[in-house]
Amino acid sequence: MSDFKPTFSWLKSRPLCLLGFGFGSGLAPVAPGTFGTLPALPMAFVLYLIGITGWWLAALCVILFVWGIRICSHTERELGIQDYGGIVWDEIVAMLLVLAFVPFHWTWWLAAFAVFRLFDALKPWPIKWLDKRVHGGLGIMLDDAVAAGFTLVVLHIAAWVR
After folding, report:
1. The predicted structure's pLDDT at residue 56
2. Which residues, 6 or more positions from 139, have their beta carbon under 8 angstroms from its beta carbon?
3. What is the pLDDT of residues 86-121, one digit of tens each?
4. pLDDT tens digits, residue range 32-79?
5. Does any domain span residue 65?
6. Which stretches are transmembrane (predicted)?
7. Which of 23, 39, 93, 110 lies deepest, with the highest CB count within 10 Å?
């Protein structure tokens, strides 16, 4: 089953997989992680408009992280493929967490997106270590949460030096 390529119609018949694939953004033929991070931006924008920001958004991210363990585990099982690149719920939740703690301005959001994608792609220690040793839904979610933490450290240092 390693040659299996999920489609949008396959996702539509599996609601948890649709979430796991970031509403279909994880189906991108190239850079699914990058495309999969994008839904976090309009989601955060709407949440900001209705007043869910800062620590409230972070608390929501904790809930989404816990749900994400189940969503990603289920999606992995349905696919029959471990840590499939199109599973991007982890990117969405991690990016929402980063956006909870940066100013509500397009330049900060662009920087947050770029720095997060850099950490997620390069996977410096301990991200790569976690990625190799923690499997299943928790493993999928955990390495991106750590990348989000690294991103916040870098952005807060940049704000401080600025």
Report:
1. 98
2. 83, 130, 131, 133
3. 999 999 999 999 999 999 999 999 999 999 999 999
4. 999 999 999 999 999 999 999 999 999 999 999 999 999 999 999 999
5. yes
6. 48-71, 92-116, 136-161
7. 93
Per the domain annotation, does 2 fall within a domain?
no
Encoded tokens for 20: 């796991």
Which position has the token pair 């994880």? 26
Q: Measured between alpha carbons, how far is 76 from 81 in angstroms, rounded to an integer?
A: 6
Contacts of 39 (CB under 8 A, 6+ apart): 22, 23, 25, 92
Domain with 30, as residue range(s), is 8-161
Give the residue among 152, 48, 19, 53 at the shortest CA–CA distance from 94: 152
Closest C-alpha to 108, from 52, 61, 44, 51: 44
Neighbours of 71 (CB within 10 A): 25
- pLDDT digits 0-9 by tens, 5-34: 899 999 999 999 999 999 999 999 999 999
The Cα angle at residue 77 between residues 72 and 83, in degrees rounded to 5: 55
CA pair distance 104, 78, nearest whole angstrom: 37
Q: Which two tokens stand for residue 115?
A: 């720095």
Rounded Cα distance between 142 and 40, Å, is 17
Q: For residue 157, tell me if it sits in a domain.
A: yes
